[in-house]
UniProtKB/TrEMBL annotation:
Alphabetical keyword list: Cell membrane, Membrane, Protein transport, Translocation, Transmembrane, Transmembrane helix, Transport
GO BP annotations listed: intracellular protein transmembrane transport; protein transport by the Tat complex
Top-rank lineage group of the source organism: Bacteria
Known partners and oligomeric status: Forms a complex with TatA.
Topology of the protein relative to the lipid bilayer: Multi-pass membrane protein
Species the sequence originates in: Flavobacterium enshiense DK69
GO terms of molecular function: proton motive force dependent protein transmembrane transporter activity
Designated name of the protein: Sec-independent protein translocase protein TatC
UniProt entry tagged with the keyword Acyltransferase: no
Subcellular location field: Cell membrane; Membrane
Function of the protein: Part of the twin-arginine translocation (Tat) system that transports large folded proteins containing a characteristic twin-arginine motif in their signal peptide across membranes.
GO annotation, cellular component aspect: TAT protein transport complex
């Protein structure tokens, strides 16, 4: 196809993906009470499953007890007239994107598949399945681990007793959505490395050379969002380290296959 024909295909990809997101958003809008009361505001409750888990771990191993709480020391408030309506719409759209993610992957695959070999095109179901599982695992990790850790840390951080935390609800919801969605996309790292390795942009040696720097960054992030104990930091660090190591393995596998094709 010509360049303009590729642009036309890409335009229809965006149109179909947008329609899928809007349909998912309408479904989310219908269940908005459950989404807000149970999911969005779940990490604000001191009885949230993550807090209970860390509290039990702290009691069992005599660690930091900062998660053994009944209520987080802040309240939420809306400061603008259209604020709640805007948050309802954008939260529904975000939920629609998460729900329709496998369909968006299908559309992206159809767009890039003409540039792939026949054998690679046959793996479409496996690709969509693995990529979707990684994304949903990332969203779950972001929501159940990183989000409550971040909320607990930020809610208890005070610069003075004169300052009370009356948090804008838009800021709170933004933290929950951004953390969960961003982590879901980060968990797509092995998929991204796969394609970058096929294009020759990333090599396994490059990933190995920068492994120690990546580990330092991961440890810094874990230290910031967790209490000052080894177990909490390890729970955050391990999945990210595993993802990085899987990416190295994938890059090595792809690079070897590409080298065999040139022989």
């Amino acid at each position: 196809m010509s360049f303009l024909e590729h642009l036309e295909e890409f335009r229809w990809l965006l149109v179909r993906s947008t329609i899928a997101i809007l349909i998912g958003g309408c479904i989310a809008y219908y269940f908005s009470d459950f989404i807000f009361d149970t999911i969005i505001f779940g990490p604000k409750d001191g009885n949230f499953i993550t807090y209970r888990f860390f509290c039990e771990m702290a009691n069992q191993y005599d660690l930091d007890k900062s998660f053994c709480i009944q209520e987080l020391p802040f309240e939420l408030q809306n400061r603008t007239m259209e604020g709640q309506f805007s948050m309802l719409i954008w939260t529904s759209i975000t939920a629609g994107f998460i729900v329709s993610f496998p369909f968006i992957l299908w559309e992206l695959w159809k767009f890039v598949s003409p540039a792939l070999y026949d054998k690679e095109r046959k793996n479409i179901k496996l690709f969509i399945f693995i990529a979707s599982i990684l994304f949903f695992m990332g969203v779950a990790f972001g929501y159940f681990v990183l989000t409550p850790l971040s909320i607990n840390f930020l809610a208890n951080l005070t610069i003075s007793d004169h300052v009370k935390n009356a948090i804008d609800v838009e800021s709170y919801i933004g933290l929950v959505k951004t953390t969960s969605l961003a982590t879901g996309l980060v968990f797509e790292l092995p998929i991204v490395i796969y394609f970058l390795s096929k294009l020759g942009i990333v090599t396994p040696q490059f990933l190995r050379d920068y492994r120690k720097y990546s580990y330092v960054i991961i440890l810094i992030i874990a230290a910031i969002v967790t209490p000052p104990d080894v177990i909490s930091q390890t729970i955050v660090t391990i999945p990210l380290v595993i993802l990085y190591e899987i990416s190295i393995f994938i890059s090595s596998f792809v690079t070897k296959k590409e080298e065999l094709k040139t022989i």
